[in-house]
UniProtKB/TrEMBL annotation, chain A:
The chain crosses the membrane at residues 32-58, 87-114, 134-155, 167-187, 253-272, 284-309. PROSITE patterns: ABC_TM1. This is Phosphate transport system permease protein. It is a multi-pass membrane protein. The keyword Membrane applies. The gene is pstC. Residues 90-305 form the ABC transmembrane type-1 domain. Gene3D superfamilies: MetI-like.
TrEMBL record, chain B:
This is Phosphate transport system permease protein PstA. InterPro entries: MetI-like (IPR000515), MetI-like_sf (IPR035906), Phosphate_PstA (IPR005672), Phosphate_transprt_permease (IPR051408). NCBIfam families: 3a0107s02c (TIGR00974). Keywords: Cell membrane, Membrane, Phosphate transport, Transmembrane, Transmembrane helix, Transport. The lineage of its organism: Bacteria, Bacteria division WOR-3. It holds the Pfam family BPD_transp_1. SUPFAM superfamilies: MetI-like (SSF161098).
Length: 319, 280
């Protein structure tokens, strides 16, 4: 068990728990048992994540052995002849997520500025805040259902006017749904970092005769830039892993496409659609490998975002 | 320097643009809520809550099995995640900077970022494959692991808010360390921890992806946790993508019930924070 070390504690930061010295051995048992339980649960969490990663890798092994790197570069998905390549789904995932991010940026940036700079307190911003919170609380299946029955027909009508093949469902529709779903995430983080901009900086700029727009453009946004970007990354991470809403509106077509109005499949939606029907070890293993790749991509995006946020915290505390 | 009038005009234009973009977010929210309420309310009646789904072609039918299934799944996943989550949270806040706790914290972050569909794969390999059939238990494992990081984080963060003086006071009275944590520190941060748990429940209640190949869904009433079970999101998914109008109607009704359920949970969260908040 860990003992408190004097060298590390400086009296301000609590490094180690306070312990009572010289406890009689009889009363010590629950004490030791309690600490043991705490350590054990920490270790269980650690084991859990290792087991998850190991399970994915082990079960993806047959497919990794059979296809190697070609799995990532080939877009042939042919369960009948047993040839699997995931490029079409990787591209589908990236296309929907980035398109969703691009659609969401103007809105989430506007909300961040509106709530972080223009209207910080009062009835209107708090109503708006709860509205946005509400939006993030709606289950993704309901977004998907709504997208399929209400949004897809609207997109179809639009496509007919534009003279494109009117599928209705497809990458574009999925991106709109995803954009609505991720706006709350980047907006709430953006609002927080814009709130943190020191007022001295802004007052300095006002004193020099800058208009509010100029202050926002030249002081507020540059100062909060990394936090805003972190918010975008975190919402991108969420968009990449989103399954149900996308599965329902993407149209489920297993071919490689760069046309945003065409039906496609994402990594999450191909797993959702075919996992229960997958016959044969290689088929299942390929789907699990897609899951592994998806997990790794999301983890990298999330970590970059969290890393930026942590750096911000350090800078904030030094001030 | 540009003309002052021009700059002021740009400034005015900018705030109008910001306001328009901000209020645009309300449009999809109301569009979704409007459709769910409009289509959902007409389906809702007593029979809808107490009867089983009807076969194709038969009018009526309800979602009783999905409601029971959702509650069972939530209950099981809470049992799986809450004890472990709270002890791991205490561990993180008590052994704040030990090397192990840094790894545990990292693991919690990774757990939180795992896409829900991948959690479904894991539960499939761990539970469904060995047992040989889809089961409520496997769905609850997937949901429980998804809930875990939320419980850990809220426990850790809330325990840290408790001032050191409170522990010192308790320890000075001769209370052993473990009792100080269990009887003084933990109760003081109870509202925060409960809030975290409710947020976790609200999150997993609407999850579909991890249940697709674990709980699987079932047209029958089932309370055996080793058999496939239905849940509200699964029922919505299966019925929404069907071509039968009657089934789509049921899906709207189920969506309405699910949204109301999630809303009540989030209102409870807010009420809890306001009412039980311990100030220091």
């Amino acid at each position: 068990m860990e003992t408190p070390s004097l060298s590390r504690s400086n009296g301000l930061v609590r490094d180690t728990p306070l312990t009572r010295p010289n406890i009689s051995s009889k009363r010590n048992f629950p004490e030791i048992f309690f600490r043991f339980t705490l350590f054990l649960s920490g270790i269980v969490v650690l084991l859990l994540i290792s087991a998850i990663l190991l399970t994915l890798i082990l079960n993806a092994l047959p497919s990794i052995k059979a296809f190697g790197l070609e799995f990532l570069s080939s877009s042939t998905w042919d369960p009948v002849s047993g040839k699997f390549g995931s490029l079409a789904f990787i591209v589908g995932t990236l296309l929907t997520s980035f398109l969703a991010l691009i659609i969401s940026i103007p809105f989430s940036l506007a909300i961040s500025i509106f709530l972080g700079e223009y209207y910080k307190k009062g009835g209107l911003p708090s109503t708006l805040g709860s509205t946005i919170e509400l939006l993030s609380g709606i289950p993704s299946i309901i977004y998907g259902f709504w997208g399929l029955l209400i949004l897809a027909p609207i997109v179809r009508a639009m496509e007919m006017k534009l003279g494109i093949v009117p599928y209705g469902v497809g990458i574009f529709t999925a991106s709109i749904i995803l954009a609505i779903m991720i706006i709350p995430y980047s907006a709430s983080l953006g609002r927080d970092v814009i709130n943190l901009v020191p007022s001295e900086l802004k007052e300095g700029a006002y004193a020099l005769g800058a208009t509010r727009f100029e202050v926002i453009k030249k002081i507020v946004v540059p100062y909060a830039r990394s936090g805003i970007i972190a918010g975008f990354l975190l919402s991108l991470g969420r968009a990449l892993g989103e399954t149900m809403a996308v599965t329902m509106v993407i149209g489920n077509a297993n071919f490689f496409t760069l046309n945003i109005f065409s039906p496609a499949n994402t990594m999450a939606s191909i797993i959702a659609n075919e996992f229960t029907e997958a016959t044969g070890k290689l088929y299942l293993s390929s789907l699990i490998e897609i899951g592994l790749v998806l997990f790794l991509i999301t983890a990298v995006i999330n970590f970059t975002g969290k890393w930026i946020i942590n750096r911000l915290d350090i800078r904030g505390s030094k001030k | 320097m540009k003309n002052l009038k021009f700059r002021i005009m740009i400034d005015k234009f900018f705030i109008i643009l910001i306001a328009i973009l901000t209020f645009a977010i309300i449009v999809p929210l109301f569009a979704i809520l409007f459709y769910v309420v409009k289509q959902g309310v007409s389906v809702i009646n007593w029979e809808f809550f107490v009867s089983l789904p009807a076969p194709i072609g038969v009018k009526g039918g309800g979602i009783s099995n999905a409601i029971v299934g959702t509650l069972i799944l939530i209950f099981l996943s809470a049992i799986i995640s809450i004890p472990l989550g709270i002890t791991a949270g205490i561990f993180l806040s008590e052994y704040n900077s030990s090397r192990l706790s840094n790894y545990v914290r990292l693991s919690t972050e990774i757990l939180q970022g795992i896409p829900s569909i991948v959690m479904g794969i894991i539960a499939y390999i761990w539970i469904v494959k060995p047992i040989g059939r889809f089961s409520a238990l496997s769905g609850a494992v997937a949901l429980g692991i998804m809930m875990l990081p939320l419980v850990v984080k809220s426990t850790e963060e809330n325990l840290r808010l408790i001032p050191q003086s409170l522990r010192e006071a308790s320890l000075a009275l001769g209370v052993p360390y473990y009792r100080t944590i269990l009887k003084v520190v933990l109760p003081a941060s109870l509202s925060g921890i409960l809030t975290g748990i409710l947020i976790g429940i609200a999150r997993v209640a609407g999850e579909t992806a991890p249940l697709l190949f674990t709980a699987f869904g079932s047209p029958y009433m089932n309370v055996n946790i080793l058999k496939p079970i239905n849940s509200l999101p699964l029922l919505i998914f299966n019925y929404a993508s069907s071509p039968y109008h009657e089934w789509q109607r049921i899906a709207w009704g189920a969506s309405f019930v699910l949204i109301v359920f999630v809303l009540i949970l989030s209102l409870m969260t807010k009420g809890l924070t306001r009412k039980w908040k311990t100030e220091f």
